[in-house]
Amino acid sequence: MAPAxxxxxxxxxxxxxALLETFTWVGFGAxxxxxxxxxxxxxxxxxxxxxxxxxxDGPQGRVAHWFAADGGVGAALLTPEQERALAAKDExxxxxxxxxxxxxRLTKGSPGVRAFTILAIxxxxxxxxxxxxxxxxxxxxx
Length: 142
Known about the structure:
Elements: H1 11-45, E1 48-58, E2 61-67, E3 73-77, H2 80-86, E4 91-97, E5 104-105, H3 111-141
Antiparallel strand pairs: 1-2, 1-4, 2-3, 4-5
Helix pairs in contact: 1-3
């Protein structure tokens, strides 16, 4: 009969330490990297301002028209999603980008930037929880 295999004393403790260490480094490292990407994406996204637009039907679909702060006149063809969200409105409050007269969106912040920010915060949270778990393990062993 073959001898029974057993794990060395404290083997599971070392595995838990390694797991917590991995989650700490990956959480903080990846979190900071994704946070830098989110900051860069926010800078590239530019500054969007609230704007009141008039909406009319055009040959290619519904078009939003507005007067820009720099004195220009803006006109943007609404996307199908924007058309659904604005339903049959003739006027709406949207967001336009400073200096750009052919784009509108319904939210001030970009969904992509928001996704990167949430991912970064989540990863940093995982790193923080794992590092706290590591400290608890360290003090629990004495």
